[in-house]
Amino acid sequence: MRRNDEEPVGPAALDRVTWALRRAELAVQTLKEQRLRPLGLAASHYTLLISVHSEPGLTGAELARRLNVTPQAIASLVARLEGRGQVERREHPRHRHVQELHLTDAGRETLRAADKVIAGIEQQITAGVGRQESTRLRELLDQVADVARKA
Q: Distance between CA atoms of 58 and 89, rounded to whole angstroms?
């Protein structure tokens, strides 16, 4: 039984690597949202567009699994981008009930503009942290991802 006067976390809880990762993620996500807003995009729109660009023909279910979101969230995003003429659904060649996602010309133009914004954020971070440190950070983050996947 826990006493009410006991602390729920240790004194170093906010100094954990995982908490630092979360703070960095939130800061970068906020910056992306701010910088993409003038294009009429949210960071989630960019993520969907670049994902479909890198793997044309993904289904909504595949995309949801890769992005770790619900199929309903993907369906909503796809509907919004489809309404803007940036994404289109095409019937799968062998499975008529499956819809593949593809960028339209407008989607490619939007992605091109959005990626310039994201590349600018990347350059800002690299300049602030330093090129060597940025390379090392990328390596460390890849290691973190590997460790987490194997856990």
A: 10
